[in-house]
Amino acid sequence: MDLEKRVIGKAFWRILPLLLVAYLASYLNRINIGFASGMTRDLGLSSTAFGIGAGVFFFGYFIFEIPSNLALQKFGARVWLARIMLSWGLLSMAMALAKGVTSFMVLRFLVGVAEAGFFPGVILYLTYWFPAAWRARMTAAFMVAIPASLSLGGPVSNWAMAVTHGALGLKPWQWMFILEGLPTVLLAGVLLKFLPGRPAEASWLTEEEKTWLEQRLEYEAGSIRSRHGVRGLAALADRRVLALAFIYFANLTTVLGIGIFLPQIIKGMGATDAAANTISQYPFMAGIAGVLIFGWLADRFRQQRKALLVVALLLSAAGLAGAGVIGPTYAALFLIAAANFGIYGLKSTFWPLPSMFLTGTAAAGGIALINSVGNLGGFVGPFILGSVKDATHSYVWALYLLAGFALAAAIVALLLKTPSMVEEES
Fold first, then answer.
1. Do the Cβ atoms of 89 and 111 come closer than 8 Å?
2. CATH of 2-415, one of 1.10.1660.10, 1.20.1250.20, 3.90.79.10, 3.10.310.30
3. Between 174 and which of 87, 170, 245, 425 could a Cys-Cys bridge form, CB atoms 3.0 to 4.6 Å apart?
4. Cα separation, 280 vs 259, whole angstroms
C-alpha cells in the first residue's frame, strides 16, 4: 500500500496540475462568448442566432471526436494533446475577426473542430496512469476545471475587456478573445515538453514504481477484456455506451445552456453587463464543490456509482425546475447553484464507468462516442435558451425544458444495467 500511494501521489502531482490548467483554458475558450459584452450588438445577433452560434461549435466537435481519439492512440497523448491545444488556441484568438452572423458561426464551428478529442483523450489518458480504485477522484480533480472556468470566466473577461478598452482600434470583446486564447497556445508547448505519454516514459518514477504501475494496469485491463469481451469499434454499438451517451447528452444540454446564457439571465434581472459577468461566478462555485464531493463519494462507495449518478441528475432537474418556478429574481440563483452541484457532480461519478468495461481501441472509440454524442447537447442547450427567449421573452420555459432533459437522463440511468460496470478488481 505504501508503494501504491507513493506512485499515485507522484503521478497525481506531475500530471493532474498540467491537465487541470489545460482544461481550464479549454473551457474558458469554449464559453467565453457568453461574457463578450457588446459582441451581440456589434455583430447583429438575435438571441436565437447567438444560441445557434454558441452551439455550432459542437457539430465540428462531434464530427472529428472519434477520429481524434483514435489518432491519440496512434501518435501518443503528449504529441496529440499539444497539437489540439495549439490549433484551438489560435482559432479561439481568431474569434476576434468575426464581422457578422456568418463569420461568427464559421469560426465557432472551426474552434469545435480544433478542440475535438481533447476531453475524451484526457479521460483515456487517465486510464494509462491510474488504477480503477483511484479513477473517480482523478477525474474529479481534472474536471473541476469546468465549473472553475465558468466561475472565473466572468471576472477574467471583465478584466480583459476593461484593461484593453479601445486599444489598437479593437473592441473590448475582440481583445477578450485574443487574451484568453493566447495562454492556450503557450500551454501547448508546456504539454509537449512535460507531459509523459506512458509510465515507462516517466523519469520521475523508479524502475520498481514503473513495473508495479504497468503490471497493475495491465492486470485490470486483461480482467476487463476477459469478463466483458467488448473489442475494437464494436463498442460503438454497445447498449451501455449508447445509454451513457444519452445521459451525457442530457447533462451537457444543461451545462452549456446555463453556462453560456447565465450572464444573459442575470442581465434580465436588471444587472449591468459587468455586474452580470461578476455575479455569474457564484452559482458555479457550487459546481466546484459538486465535482469534488461526488468524486470522493464515487471512489468511497464504488458499488453505488449508479445511485450517485441518479441523485446528481435528480438534483439537477429539481434545481432548474425550481429556478423556473421562482422566475427572474436573484433568489433563483440559489436554485441554479443547487442544480450546478448536481450537474457538475455527475461528471466525476459518470466518467469512470466506461473504463470499467472498455479497454484499448474499444475504450478510445467508446469514450469518444459518448463524449461526441454528449457534446451535441452543447448545441441543444444554447439553442433552447436562445429560441425560447425570443419566442416567450423569458427564460422560464427554457429552464423547465432543461430540467426535463435531466429527468429523462435519470430514468435512463435507473434502467441501465450496471453490475458489470462497477465490478472491482480483486
1. no
2. 1.20.1250.20
3. 170
4. 9
Task: Give the Cβ contact number of residue 147 at 10 Å.
Answer: 29
Q: What is the pLDDT of residue 420?
A: 45
Instruction: Flag residues of the chain having pLDDT under 70.
Output: 1, 223-237, 355-361, 363-364, 418-426
Read off the DSSP letter of residue 170: -
Q: Is 135 exposed, middle or buried (0-12, 13-18, 19+ CB in 10 A)?
A: buried
How far apart, in Å, are the Cα atoms of 29 and each of 76, 91, 152, 176, 194? Answer: 24, 10, 12, 10, 23
User: Which residues, 6 or more positions from 189, have their beta carbon under 8 angstroms from its beta carbon?
Assistant: 82
State the Cα–Cα distance between residues 209 and 399, nearest whole angstrom: 50
CB of 114 closer than 8 Å to CB of 80: no
Residue type at 104? F
- Find the helix packing angle between 47-75 and 118-127, rounded to 10°: 40
Predicted pLDDT at 423: 44
Query: What pLDDT was estimated at residue 425?
Result: 42
Centre a 10 Å sphere on the Cβ of residue 426 and count the other Cβ atoms it contains.
5
